[in-house]
Amino acid sequence: MMRSWGKTSLLVVGCVLSIVLAYWQGGFAAWYLGICLTLIWIQAGLFYVFALNGLTVSRQLSGEVFVSGEDVAITLQIGHRTFLPLPWMIIKDNWVHEGSGVKLTYSKLVFPWFRSAFILHYKMTGLMRGVYRFAGFEAVTGDLFGFAVRKAYRDDLHRCVVYPRPDSLTGSGMTFQSEDGDVSTIRGPKADTPLISGVRDYVSGDPYHRIHWKSTARLSRLMTKDPEQASSAKRMLLLDAAPAAGPAEAAQPLLEKGVALAAGFFEAAAGGRESCGFASSSSTCRRIAPTIRPDLTLAYEVLASVGGKPAISFPDLVRKEAAALPLDTSMLCITSTLDLALVRAIADSGTKRRSVHVIYVHARPSLSVAEREGASQLQAVGCSFTEVPHPVRLWPKQGGVADATA
User: Fold this and answer.
1) Which InterPro entries match (predicted)?
2) pLDDT confidence of 157, banded at 50, 70, 90?
3) CATH architecture under which domain 56-163 falls
4) Euclidean distance between CA atoms 345 and 153, whole angstroms
5) Quick check: 379 and 385 in contact, CB under 8 A?
6) What is the enclosing helix (H) or strand (E) of 136?
């Protein structure tokens, strides 16, 4: 396309005036000016018609699946069949993060001249959880004098999925608490004993260290912890995808922390003999029913899709899952909103018959008076409670685009 009709009009007017002047007055200068302007006009027209003909673009990514915080390397191969030299070209490769809508653009000025093909390398750094979708390629080139500018667009189907990076549970010290005792979710070097989720009658020969004294006192007979029943233990993770009840800028970082915690619990369950399900208030997220063998790939795919507008409020999700799940399935609720509606939903979920644990993710240095009162109310209805501070200095930041062409 012509850069502007104003420049084109001036060029045409200059050509006509210089030729008229040469005919009327003659002289070398007038003829020289007229011929030069005419040649510039002709080359601008040829450039407009033929530049970027047969433009081809191929793109290769270093992978299709990544973990948040990693980088993806991208190789661009660009070719064209233009017989005219291309003095300059601006390349733009666009990507969009579907969850946040953030647009990442790789832009580079190259000087192809007579080269009909060249290769560029760049990388997207600090990937965020979610899906990055290719949003179009644009090439802009022009003649030496700036009278003709040609643009070309190409589209393609490219995407890369970014899984959440599982959060380390050892630093949080979080435990599942049920009426049969505390069940640690930590999988560190010292946690080499099997998780205990069931008890049975004592049998002669059972080790004394496996006697479950709480059940023994309640039932007035010896009960022992049964590690074999641990494989049938069912956990259900419930994630609150609604914005946190704090500053607006804290909503996404706190959600990312909650997703990372959920990924950490899935990893811990897969490393042991636990089943683990998942449900979220997000409208774009599917539900995973508790299974004997957790599928980490499926779990990470689902966690990568968490986001968007909530389809249901978190208290309603708690009630819905509590009504659908069997009583031997414990619930782990990860949220950034601690209010009366959640307390009522937890109370309605039957905490006297099932284990319910709430993990409260917040951005404050310590809990406020109202939050401490909410935690006390949760514990009063039989729910265990853990707070996970996530200060501003730990919030993830969206990466950018860096040129990697040697």
Assistant:
1) DUF58
2) very high
3) Sandwich (2.60)
4) 53
5) yes
6) strand 130-142
* pLDDT score recorded for residue 187: 32
3-state secondary structure of 349: coil
Residue 188 makes CB contacts below 8 A (sequence gap 6+) with 170
Q: Residue 100, CB half-sphere, CA atoms under 13 Å: how many? A: 19
Rounded Cα distance between 12 and 79, Å, is 33
The residue among 144, 143, 145 whose CA lies nearest residue 47 is 143
User: In angstroms, rounded to a whole number, what is the distance separating the alpha carbons of residues 180 and 198?
Assistant: 7
Q: By the 8 A CB rule, do 265 and 234 touch?
A: no
- C-alpha distances in angstroms, 359 versus 169, 172, 266, 351? 12, 10, 15, 15
Question: In whole angstroms, what separates CA 119 from the centre of its chain?
Answer: 29
The type of residue at 328 is D
Amino acid at 253: P
Question: pLDDT category, 189, cuts 50, 70, 90?
Answer: very low
Query: Hey, what are 187's tokens?
Result: 């999988």
* HSE toward the beta carbon, residue 287, CA cutoff 13 A: 12
Residue 299 in tokens: 């779990």
For 226, phi and psi rounded to 5 degrees? -110, 100
What is the C-alpha to C-alpha distance for residues 364 and 370, in angstroms, rounded to an integer?
13
Architecture of domain 175-197+233-394 in CATH? 3-Layer(aba) Sandwich (3.40)
Q: How far is CA 195 from CA 63, 192, 230, in A?
A: 36, 9, 6
Q: Per this entry, what is the length of the chain?
A: 406
DSSP 208: G
**Which tokens sit at 323?**
């009504």
3-state SS class at 236: strand
pTM for the predicted model, two decimal places: 0.79
Residues 99-126 pLDDT 10s: 888 999 999 999 999 999 999 999 999 9
Domain layout of the chain by residue ranges: 5-50, 56-163, 175-197+233-394, 200-229
Beta strands in 228-285 (DSSP E): 234-239, 275-280
